[in-house]
Automatic annotation (TrEMBL):
This is one of the proteins that binds to the 5S RNA in the ribosome where it forms part of the central protuberance. Residues 7-97 form the Large ribosomal subunit protein bL25 L25 domain. InterPro entries: Rbsml_bL25/Gln-tRNA_synth_N, Ribosomal_bL25/Gln-tRNA_synth, Ribosomal_bL25_b-dom, Ribosomal_bL25_C, Ribosomal_bL25_long, Ribosomal_L25_dom, Ribosomal_uL5_bac-type. Belongs to the bacterial ribosomal protein bL25 family. CTC subfamily. Part of the 50S ribosomal subunit; part of the 5S rRNA/L5/L18/L25 subcomplex. Contacts the 5S rRNA. Binds to the 5S rRNA independently of L5 and L18. It comes from Fundidesulfovibrio magnetotacticus. This is Large ribosomal subunit protein bL25. The keyword Disulfide bond does not apply. The lineage of its organism: Bacteria, Pseudomonadati, Thermodesulfobacteriota, Desulfovibrionia, Desulfovibrionales. Keywords: Ribonucleoprotein, Ribosomal protein, RNA-binding, rRNA-binding. Residues 106-187 form the Large ribosomal subunit protein bL25 beta domain. CDD domains: Ribosomal_L25_TL5_CTC (cd00495). GO terms for molecular function: 5S rRNA binding; structural constituent of ribosome. Residues 1-21 are annotated as: Disordered. GO terms for cellular component: cytosolic large ribosomal subunit.
């Protein structure tokens, strides 16, 4: 059973570049909590507890966000929705938390993990990963940590597409058009095509 992660944040009144800059100087991260019910609460969270929680839950695992408003706390099942990092400093500039309804399906991007050594690679092929995440829809409690794809049986010239991918129970891939996630290409054939294009 997964550990239920909890993170406490404080509601904040101060907004704008100046107050946000001062918060970051004090190792605090400004953010916003919002949900589909219209709540929009500016918050602030300590840098270290946030990093520890983010390491555990990433962007696709529901956790308990505890919002402290003048000593009164409310707990919201939430996702870490958007994390804005500083361009060059080791600093989180802003974070968006999204409150979820445990009874309502949600769209979320889940990381892909490739396992196994493809048959096609063993005979000289090259494994190409076309997508690092897959958009899925499911109940918050059913969001998988990752989608594991075994490529052992992939021969040269073959690929695995989203339409034929076996998904965990209760999880459905979201796509308008079928697309390849991973495949094995022939490097020699690719080189010939590039050579012909350069003539």
């Amino acid at each position: 059973m997964k550990e239920q992660v909890s993170l406490t944040v404080r509601a904040r009144d101060a907004k704008g570049k100046g107050p946000n800059r001062r918060m970051r100087a004090e190792k605090l991260i400004p953010g916003i909590y919002y949900d589909d019910k219209g709540q929009n609460i500016p918050v602030v969270v300590e840098d270290l507890p946030f990093r520890k929680a983010y390491k555990k839950v990433g962007s696709s695992r529901v956790f308990d966000l505890v919002i402290d408003q003048e000593g009164q706390t409310q707990t919201h099942p939430s996702l870490i929705w958007v994390v804005q990092n500083h361009p060059w400093k080791n600093q989180v500039d802003h974070v968006d938390f999204y409150g979820v309804d445990p009874k309502k399906p949600i769209h979320v991007h889940v990381l892909v993990e490739i396992t196994g050594k493809a048959k096609g690679v063993a005979v000289g092929g090259k494994l190409e990963i076309h997508r690092e995440t897959i958009e899925v829809v499911c109940l918050p409690a059913d969001i998988p940590d990752k989608i594991v794809i075994d490529v052992t049986e992939l021969a040269m010239g073959q690929h695995i597409d989203v339409k034929t991918l076996a998904m965990p129970q209760g999880v459905k891939a979201v796509f308008d058009q079928n697309y390849a996630i991973v495949g094995v290409i022939n490097p020699a054939a690719e080189g010939e095509e590039e050579g012909a294009a350069g003539k």
